[in-house]
Amino acid sequence: MENVDIEFKELSQGEIKEMLLGIRYIFINYPPEKLKEIIWQLYRGWVYNSAEWVQQDDIKDMLLFYDFITHLIDDLFEYSQYLNRQE
Predict the structure, then answer these.
(1) Contact 38/30 with Cβ under 8 angstroms?
(2) Per-residue model confidence (pLDDT) at position 74
(3) What is the mean pLDDT of residues 54-74?
(4) What is the spatial distance between Cα 38 and Cα 58, in angstroms, rounded to a whole number?
(5) DSSP assignment of the chain, as one string?
(6) Which of 4, 38, 48, 62 is the most exposed place for a label (fewest CB within 10 A)?
(7) How many whole angstroms separate alpha carbon 45 and alpha carbon 47?
């Protein structure tokens, strides 16, 4: 799936700061392992509730997406730790 219609805009310093604070704050309320647990529960619920109609490829795709999201959580946590050290 391509995102050919996305238009990128320049962000103001305030918008950038707000996004960076959002990255930091999520880890204050949800440590990385807790986030991964929540994502796993969402995945399990999806598998359970769609068991009658879902195809094997859909399950595989969702599992790969789960794996991607857990790596993204790790990267964002590492980045937020970096930001904390910069102040």
Answers:
(1) yes
(2) 96
(3) 91
(4) 20
(5) ---TT----PPPHHHHHHHHHHHHHHHHHS-HHHHHHHHHHHHHHHHHHTTTT--HHHHHHHHHHHHHHHHHHHHHHHHHHHHHHH-
(6) 4
(7) 5
What length does the chain have? 87
Query: Long-range contacts for 8-13 (Cβ within 8 Å, ≥24 apart)?
Result: none
CA–CA distance, 47 with 40 (Å, rounded to integer): 11
Q: What does the block give as tokens for 72?
A: 């993204």
For 77, residues 6+ apart whose C-beta sits below 8 A from its C-beta are 27, 32
Top-confidence residue, 20 or 51? 20
Query: Could you tell me the two tokens for 45?
Result: 């619920």
Q: Is 66 exposed, middle or buried (0-12, 13-18, 19+ CB in 10 A)?
A: middle
The pLDDT of residue 69 is above 90: yes
